[in-house]
Design goal:
Elements: E1 2-7, E2 17-23, H1 33-40, E3 42-43, H2 44-53, H3 59-74, H4 80-108, H5 112-133, E4 142-143, E5 146-147, H6 153-179, H7 181-187, H8 195-201, H9 205-209, H10 217-220, H11 241-264, E6 289-297, E7 300-308, E8 312-319, H12 329-333, H13 341-348, H14 352-355
Antiparallel strand pairs: 1-2, 3-8, 4-5, 6-7, 7-8
Helix pairs in contact: 2-3, 3-4, 4-5, 4-11, 4-13, 5-6, 6-11, 11-13
Length: 357
């Protein structure tokens, strides 16, 4: 990103600057996955691995959108137990992503104690997931037709208890941030986006919901466990940086609540659909064709289109939640103080690896 500065009118000595213009320069993180698939095709199993590794903070959302599309193409029905555990993966990812953003925002506000509190809670979530799945990040649990492996009941109970304690600790910190004046006075009114602007720009996720646009795939088009574990859409109407922070904090609490509820209601049964041997030509249920899949990631809807046959993936399009947000960044920054640059960029929570897939 490049910005052009000019002295602020209120700065007699010329020591303060405001942003005259900004331009988003893409290409530095370009992966070229879609072009690679279109040119040579990609083995189905390799494609799933790459989708999860495409982005660290959105790995489960990207993988879910992809497997939803493939499962639709193969007409696979995911077992209820696997669907509930997929919800756990998606919601824990959402909470860790939002808490990282909150911690970085506290750092930009020079509030080291608040920053440390959010980083500690995020680490506790990651550690709980590590104890449950066997790895801290990108557990490779999501598979075509369900999950790749089981977790025993004792491990599931341990995760539920850990999440319950984390949720209580997080609630206290969220209440302090929302009801405290110091953070609100610094961020309220900064980088305002109206509901109309959010709709016209096609914004997704917390950025749209902070402007009063109640859009959330989990509630609007529920699939899997979200049909039973109803997600509450968190909406604020301020449209500013503070509203976006509040939405992410409240969504973190909602994610932990959903995880607790899903684990309490966890049904028995298999974790993999019958006939889900995608990638094995002789047994693959796939026929030549195309399909779409959708999932609600930490930054909004992840839309995935796939095309292929029993042998390989031959077409792919992935539209992540950050992609439409890129279009509003120049206008959002124009005329703002240079001192607010970090807060403004953190408030929209861009994920460039997803946007430059």
């Amino acid at each position: 990103m490049s910005v052009e500065l000019e002295p602020a009118r209120s700065s007699i000595l010329g020591w303060a600057y405001k942003i005259a213009s900004a331009e988003v320069e893409l290409g530095h993180n370009h992966i070229g996955l879609e072009e690679r698939v279109a040119g040579r095709g990609l083995d189905w199993n390799q494609a799933l691995v790459l989708m999860e590794k495409l982005c660290g903070s959105c790995s489960q959302a990207n993988a879910l959108a992809f497997v939803h599309a493939v499962e639709s193409m193969a007409q696979l029905i995911v077992p209820p137990r696997a669907a509930s555990l997929r919800l756990v993966l998606a919601e824990m990812e959402r909470a860790t992503s939002h808490l990282m953003n909150a911690a970085d925002t506290m750092r930009a506000l020079s509030m080291p104690e608040r920053e440390a509190g959010f980083r500690d809670l995020r680490e506790r979530i990651i550690q709980a997931m590590s104890d449950w799945s066997g790895t801290r990040l990108q557990p490779a649990l999501i598979a075509y037709g369900g999950l790749a492996r089981h977790a025993d009941e004792a491990t599931n109970r341990t995760l539920t208890i850990a999440v319950r304690h984390i949720e209580r600790a997080l609630r206290a910190q969220v209440n302090a941030v929302i009801h405290g004046r110091e953070i609100a006075s610094r961020m309220a009114g900064l980088g305002g986006i109206t509901a109309e602007e959010a709709v016209l720009a096609g914004l997704r996720g917390p950025v749209a919901r902070a402007s009063g646009v109640a859009t959330d795939i989990r509630a609007g088009f529920p699939t899997g466990a979200y049909e039973n574990e109803v997600a509450t859409i968190v909406v604020q109407r301020g449209g500013d940086a503070f509203s976006r922070l509040v939405v992410r904090l409240l969504e973190s609490l909602e994610s932990l609540r959903l995880v607790e509820q899903a684990m309490d209601d966890l049904p028995p049964g298999p974790i993999r659909a019958k006939g889900s041997a995608i990638g094995t030509v002789r047994e693959s249920p796939l026929q030549a064709g195309s399909a779409i899949g959708r999932a609600e990631g930490p930054r909004g809807e992840v839309f995935c289109w796939v095309r292929g046959d029993a042998n390989k993936l031959t077409g792919l399009h992935l539209s992540a939640g950050s992609f439409p947000t890129l279009s509003i960044v120049p206008g959002l920054l124009r005329g703002q103080s240079l001192d607010d640059l970090d807060l403004l960029l953190l408030s929209v929570d861009l994920c460039l690896p997803c946007a430059e897939r």
